[in-house]
């Protein structure tokens, strides 16, 4: 059976995965991870195939999901997938989708009006889509009562009205216009500088590299806590090979440093890693191994 939502508990918090889609990437593995070394990669195949890597097509398999986090009286949605009806011809996997994401969110226990906070780890197309939905031909915020948290640096890096960007990359400008701008115009966006405490246990921290203003969310408590790492770690093989950045990392060297920082935090505090793109079982504890780390997958409750 294909399950589209699952729940984990960390301390007093409840964390539910809301799936948009799982499948092979558009690019071969060596193009997605340009530093991929074939002989090192071969060592990981026994645990990567078939869930995390399709041998026949040489495609890494990734999920796109949101994390619904309930902590105290707060309901938070972390990353909002690719969204429906978005015009993304340069990203075939995210172009003009029509998927029952909001129905799955409701099955996970939250209607759009229940979301208090939306946090986008960064402003790539697969993390901002459900920020908005199409209503009578207009893009409107999907979550009417939510505060949307974005990094100020990240917002400036994508704002299409800086310099010549709108003319130079109309597709990217359109993405900002349909998924970020409506939230800024409605007054629901809050731009974060540096670290930001959401409540007593949830803290946003900068982790630049994948994008200039990428952030992660840490859940800090005595149980060891959790890290919602966005795209600092895209695929589980990067846990073992933390120096392999993706071709989508704006600064691959800085991305590597942020990746190692996240993995080291998890290994030394016993924090569970909740990435946005790992296929099943989606969540892992992190153990040190050699010069890297190794994932110990943790199934939903
Ligand atoms: Zn992503």
UniProtKB/TrEMBL annotation:
<dbReference type="InterPro" id="IPR051013">
    <property type="entry name" value="MBL_superfamily_lactonases"/>
</dbReference>
<keyword id="KW-0479">Metal-binding</keyword>
<dbReference type="GO" id="GO:0046872">
    <property type="term" value="F:metal ion binding"/>
</dbReference>
<dbReference type="InterPro" id="IPR001279">
    <property type="entry name" value="Metallo-B-lactamas"/>
</dbReference>
<keyword id="KW-0862">Zinc</keyword>
<comment type="similarity">
    <text>Belongs to the metallo-beta-lactamase superfamily.</text>
</comment>
<protein>
    <submittedName>
        <fullName>MBL fold metallo-hydrolase</fullName>
    </submittedName>
</protein>
<dbReference type="GO" id="GO:0016787">
    <property type="term" value="F:hydrolase activity"/>
</dbReference>
<feature type="domain" description="Metallo-beta-lactamase">
    <location>
        <begin position="63"/>
        <end position="277"/>
    </location>
</feature>
<dbReference type="Pfam" id="PF00753">
    <property type="entry name" value="Lactamase_B"/>
</dbReference>
<keyword id="KW-0378">Hydrolase</keyword>
<dbReference type="InterPro" id="IPR036866">
    <property type="entry name" value="RibonucZ/Hydroxyglut_hydro"/>
</dbReference>
């Amino acid at each position: 059976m294909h399950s589209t939502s699952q729940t984990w508990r960390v301390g007093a918090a409840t964390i539910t995965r809301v799936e948009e889609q799982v499948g092979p990437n558009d690019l071969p593995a060596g193009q997605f991870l340009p530093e991929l070394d074939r002989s090192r990669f071969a060592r990981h195949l026994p645990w990567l195939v078939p869930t995390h890597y399709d041998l026949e097509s040489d495609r890494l398999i990734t999920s796109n999901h949101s994390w619904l986090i309930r902590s105290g009286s707060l309901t938070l949605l972390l990353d909002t997938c690719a969204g429906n009806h978005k015009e993304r011809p340069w990203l075939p996997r995210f172009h003009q989708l029509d998927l029952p994401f909001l129905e799955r969110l409701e099955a996970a226990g939250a209607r759009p009006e229940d979301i208090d906070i939306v946090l986008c780890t960064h402003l790539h197309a697969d993390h901002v889509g459900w920020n908005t939905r199409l209503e009578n031909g207009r893009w409107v915020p999907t979550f009417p009562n939510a505060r949307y948290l974005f990094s100020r640096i990240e917002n400036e890096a994508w704002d299409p009205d800086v310099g010549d960007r709108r003319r130079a990359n109309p597709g990217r400008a359109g993405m900002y216009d349909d998924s970020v701008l409506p939230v800024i115009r409605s007054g629901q966006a809050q731009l974060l500088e540096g670290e930001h405490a959401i409540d007593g246990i949830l803290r946003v921290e900068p982790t630049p590299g994948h994008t200039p203003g990428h952030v992660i969310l840490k859940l800090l408590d005595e149980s060891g806590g959790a890290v919602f790492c966005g795209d600092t770690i895209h695929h589980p093989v990067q846990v073992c090979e933390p120096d392999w950045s993706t071709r989508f990392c704006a600064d691959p060297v800085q991305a590597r440093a942020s990746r190692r920082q996240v993995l080291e935090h998890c290994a030394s505090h016993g924090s569970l890693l909740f990435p946005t793109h790992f296929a099943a079982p989606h969540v892992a504890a992190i153990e040190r191994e050699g010069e890297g780390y190794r994932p110990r997958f943790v199934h939903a409750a």
